[in-house]
Amino acid sequence: MDYFKLLSKFYVSLHYKVKNESSIITLVIVPKIPWELVTAQAVLLLKAEGPIVPCMLSSYRKFLLSMRCLLTDLNAKTYLVAVIGAGPAGLYAAQFLARQGVQVVIFNRDIKPGGLAEYGIFPDKQKMRTGLMAQFHRILHMPNIRYVGNVTIGQSGDLKLDQLRQAGFQAFMVTTGAQKQKWLGLPGEDLAGVYQANDLVFHYNRLPAFAEKQPDIGHQVVMIGAGNVMLDIVNYLRLESKQRLITAYARRGPGQVKFDQQTLEPVAGCLDMEAIDHAVQSAMSLINHSPYDLEPFYELLTKARQKSTACNSKITLRMAFLKSPRRLLGDETGHVKAIVFESNQLVFQDDEFVAQATGEFETIPADTVIFSIGSQVDEGFGLPISQGNYVTNPAPRYPVDGISYEVYNPDLCAHCEDIFVSGWARSAGEGIVGLARKDAERGAKAILSYLDTLKPISDDEVDAVLMRLPALDKETVDLQDLEILEKIEQEIAAEKGLKSFKFGSKEAMLQAIKNRS
User: Fold this and answer.
1) Are 355 and 324 in contact (CB under 8 A)?
2) Which pLDDT belongs to residue 148?
3) E strand residue ranges, 291-367
């Protein structure tokens, strides 16, 4: 029977151009045809990147009402992949896989997606956050992507990878990021008044479990690290407008600072240039390389100060170089009172500057110490770890651009061939969102190569796989729940006259969703 000819008597055609995408979707709706005549040969035609696979068009339900539509292509292969983590890397990996016809389920430990794009960007960078979240919104509404929030995956999580594998997932993309802050293992790190950068970043971004924990920041603040996160924290302290002397310590020289002009600009007016000049000159005597180019450092500071406004705060920002912390000292109450630094010399080796200890020590008074020295992956997930990252196969089966995305350790991981990592889970703290996207898409290509070695699943198997997962004694969150939560938070922000509003706990989010559902 010529189904195309039969259905052409009844169909209604609708052309829909997807925002910011090159693809044109042509919907062919057949409301008058009995569903027993609907076959896998013709109901809906789709002109888009990649193959066409069966799915529910939930993103178009407003004009499709409750009609079930099928994407058709007899040659399409359906595979099912679990993406663990819903930060930028996870979402971009899911998008890449979905565009190639893969069915994707995103599992997220948080209720909201976005990861550091939601909980790691300084609140003043609203344009950046809004743009990213708009992209993520479109990804989550792709027809062959499903979202399951408030679920942790891993050996110590709500569900284990083995349980997902037994249920029928064919591959796993782990994009959990670098969730743990690094400690140096120094004496005194457990003193009161000592913080990790994320303690403050997650606090002012309202991440549940951190939102209600108000850091007690003193007047003499030592920052360990000289990157953009350090500057974001300084900016947060600037807005509090309390009398504070903040000094950022770097283990290498002024030419190796890791912050950029844009992040420096909001606090550039608070720089104590006389103290910074003195710190630079002190460092020059310990740099074993001539000439040492200071021009980029001073050019960075000058341009930032030219675009900055007056400090309008009581903070003073200084910098110190070639200093490595060695121990923290506490008072009789168990609160930090000072930090001991060892001076370094900078030696040029193998085309880079290396900090070497000199054996000279200095004690600096401090009532608050904040470590901003990077992150590492969570060992609780259950994958092998080396140097803060999940271990990848040194001889990958499916390398992409010479990079391995395959988890590897035959001693600890009996079933690793279907597990892939990308983003900060592969290389902790490396790059920004644009680089995370590129890395995620390369990792997705590696998964596609692996999937080609497997037998495709049937279209109806996806629902069956999810049904086979063990029941959880907690509420999970789907895409519809996210839309309800987003609307509620927008309403509260409007009522309070705020640019945005976030609930400070998972319990409050879940209750708000429940009340509105």
Assistant:
1) yes
2) 96
3) 315-320, 323-330, 336-349, 352-365
